[in-house]
Design goal:
Radius of gyration: 18 Å
Number of domains: 1
Order of helices and strands: HHHHH
Shape: elongated
Structural class: mainly alpha
Distance between the termini: 23 Å
Low-confidence stretches: none
Length: 146
């Protein structure tokens, strides 16, 4: 369906942002690192891993709730615009995980941490990508309600 073109472009842009983080870190390397002490970075890294672990199921629940609301909420918004908001909200929440890798690199961590958080961000984008069947469920739910 061409109705989801904008949705897919947004998911692609989020993926490009993750790639841009990595390119920036490789180009500028140690020039942009702050060099925090290892014990300080360890605390930040642990907190960010914990947030990432909690964020994945929370965003999944949020997506489920938003999809159900899209099907049942009254209003004049089209199914396309409702699903676009759901896509943007869930992808933006998951994009934060990729941003953690950039932050940890800026704090002084090596590329390994950057790659781990980037991989988690890519996984999140894949899991919350726009799907035809979800969009069709919204259309069906809105038509039943009317």
């Amino acid at each position: 369906m061409s109705d989801l073109t904008l949705h897919r472009i947004i998911a692609g842009m989020m993926l490009c942002i993750l790639i841009a983080y990595n390119i920036i870190c490789h180009i500028f390397g140690s020039e942009i690192q702050m060099g925090l002490q290892e014990d300080q970075r360890e605390v930040f890294r642990t907190v960010m891993y914990a947030i990432a672990i909690v964020l994945f199921p929370l965003v999944n629940v949020l997506r489920h709730i938003l999809l159900k609301l899209n099907q049942t909420m009254p209003g004049r918004d089209s199914a396309k615009s409702r699903y676009l908001i759901t896509t943007i909200v869930t992808l933006a929440c998951i994009e934060v995980v990729g941003l953690f890798g950039l932050l940890m690199f800026l704090f002084g961590d090596d590329f390994n941490t950057l790659y781990i958080f980037t991989a988690l961000g890519v996984l999140g984008i894949f899991l919350h990508r726009p799907r035809e069947e979800e969009y069709q469920q919204i259309i069906d739910g809105m038509s039943v309600r009317e």
